[in-house]
Amino acid sequence: MPTFQGASPHDFALDRGAAINMRLIALVVAVATIGGFMFGYDSGVINGTQKGLEAAFDLGALGVGINVGAILVGSSIGAFGAGRLSDVIGRRGTMMLAAVLFLISALVAGAAGSSVVFILARIVGGLGVGAASVTSPVYISEMVPAGIRGRLSSIQQVMIITGLTGAFLANYVLAHTAGSSTAALWLGLPAWRWMFWLQAIPAAIYFLALLTIPESPRYLVARRREEQAHGVLTRLFGPEEATRKVAEIRASLAADHHRPRLSDLIDRTKGRIRPIVWVGIGLAVFQQFVGINVVFYYGATLWQAVGFTEDYALQINILSGALSIGACLLTVALVDKVGRRPLLLIGSAGMAVTLGTVAWAFSTAVTDAAGAVSLPGHAGLIALIAANLYVVFFNMSWGPVMWVMLGEMFPNQIRGSALAVAGFAQWIANAAISVSFPILAVSPGLAPTYVFYALSAAVSFVFVRAFVTETRGRELEEMQG
Global pTM? Predict the structure, then answer.
């Protein structure tokens, strides 16, 4: 069995010189993070299809917001349901269900003949996105050694951004080939429909790949399937370490050894929700209140609103995606060295400044006699640079680190339930920001809207300083709630 060369047992928080099966760990992470890719692709594919939706379904600003935001309704339900479902059918079983939902959504959304059918298809896709968003990070956290858990869990965000960038790139290529997103492409059908159908390919790959990886040993112990858990841990770390880990996991569960349930989130001695759950909810909500998904969902529309062409706006999306991937890779290198909390603080400060700069730039926008909006002088360039720096700060901090922390900060007994609640809060906040943006962009306007995002980033800095505890290098069995 291959070992991880150049690292001591201490680096992995293992007490004995266990042989680390890095080949299996690499497979586990690679397959689980396809869920992140699908999360990103399904979320980002809508960016660049909005003109097609407007034309096909005769939508106004509110209609666009509802069609774009439909995925978020499903995502909030999917996140809440998957957190609990993963305690019943397993982490892998839940991810397989998500893959099926992705496939159905891609096929139906592309073929939708009405806004109602399209919305239903996107809700189905949202169920998959929500399930993948909470299950993949938990699965990775439960399968890998503590000393490298942060960097391997961060790969989830790399894959989310890769999925977003892949969607942006595919949308650009299809629209460019057809002439525009509404022009006919293959089989006489408009390019925007093919943007959705293309997603069926990675969805099928995701489902098949999930058949090659084992179930989480922590789930198996919780379900009293300790022999299977021992087998998985033996494959990962060797028989001696497997025996020790099974005993640790068993001891970390509640004293009465009941199966995890939602009521575990309440501290029965004090009769209130555990503080760690509120911290998780706060992390989830602030990640959205800084407005990142306005860039992901409305990037093309946003830049066209201030004078850029559709073709150029789609290219800006690709640039933002590439910068995001680079920033996430920086986090992979740093998260297990400098810790989670410092990265969150740096990100909050950087986002507050860059979002404030974007707000200022948009405040200078002028409208000509024909009604076209543009940014005068260097304001357009300043907005573009600040917006992309904002994307970098987000993706080196709150983007990956929030998911890392949600996957590891909760005790074993409440992890699934706490993820259900935090994931639900994250997607509700996402929906509130995303659905409101088309309306807020008109009144009160882009500048005041971005001021709100900047203030949210500033408040998130205070929140982290006051309430977030570092989790770097700690075993999951050590987490306290």
Answer: 0.74
